[in-house]
Design brief:
Elements lengths: L18 E5 L9 E8 L3 H14 L8 E5 L12 E8 L5 H15 L6 E6 H6 L12 E4 L27 H37 L8 E3 L2 E3 L5
Length: 229
């Protein structure tokens, strides 16, 4: 028996295999694909244990036929070297409505808050490669993650009564250091704004895909849909 299948091993303790696997006996795989959740490696053991417990011992993760999890073993196909990944396999990839329903269930059951979107790709798309191997568009479906927690940065208090500065006596190294820190803070805040604007664009795209006036998506714990004319 393969020791990496249906084990109780921690993924970040494993360097002999790139994956740990979880599947139930007599599992039938038909036209399958996968939803992908990415996590920082320092929480991978905890999140994999949660996924395994839900899959084995409850009616959670319905529609998921099997799972696998990356380990600390190096994987040349990995797009992101900093994070680990948990993969949730589903059957009947052409059934978009059901696949997205399973994806929403995964978000709920795993209480996933790490990324703005999650993506689904078929096994065929997996065989065609990842971004790390040169494939650019390599997913079939995506879902906006309304549980995503956006990082915010505290605003600096405005200084009052600025002191007069004698530029001739100013230490050049200190001035350059302070200027660089201000520039880095501005760049950091601009990146945060840009990331949020990109998320809003993704939400608008998903709203435009809605077919019925009563359909909606949830973003920041609010419902958004098409306006009735």
């Amino acid at each position: 028996m393969n020791k990496f299948i249906n084990s109780n091993l921690n993924p970040m303790d494993i360097s002999e295999s790139p994956w740990l696997y979880e599947k139930k006996p007599n599992t039938i795989i038909e036209n399958s694909g996968k939803w992908m959740l990415f996590y920082p490696k320092n929480v991978m053991n905890e999140k994999w244990k949660l996924a395994v417990d839900l899959y084995r011992n409850s009616n959670k993760l319905s529609g998921v036929v099997s799972m696998k999890c990356s380990t600390k073993c190096d994987n040349s196909r990995a797009t992101n070297k900093k994070d680990g990944i948990i993969i949730f396999y589903c059957n009947n990839s052409e059934d978009e409505q059901n696949i997205k329903k399973i994806g929403e269930k995964i978000l709920d059951d795993m209480d996933y808050k790490n990324n703005t979107m999650i993506f689904y790709k078929t096994d065929l798309q997996t065989q065609e490669g990842t971004r790390a191997t040169g494939s650019q568009i390599n997913y079939s479906y995506r879902l906006v993650n309304h549980r995503y927690i956006r990082k915010t940065y505290p605003r600096k208090k405005k200084l009052k009564n600025y002191p007069e500065i004698d530029l001739q006596k100013m230490n050049e190294a200190e001035f350059l250091k302070e200027s660089e820190e201000i520039k880095n803070q501005i760049d950091k805040e601009n990146k945060s704004i840009s990331k949020y604007n990109k998320l809003i664009d993704e939400v608008i795209i998903e709203i435009n895909k809605l077919k019925n006036q009563d359909d909606y998506i949830i973003f920041d714990n609010k419902k958004y849909g098409k306006v009735k004319k």
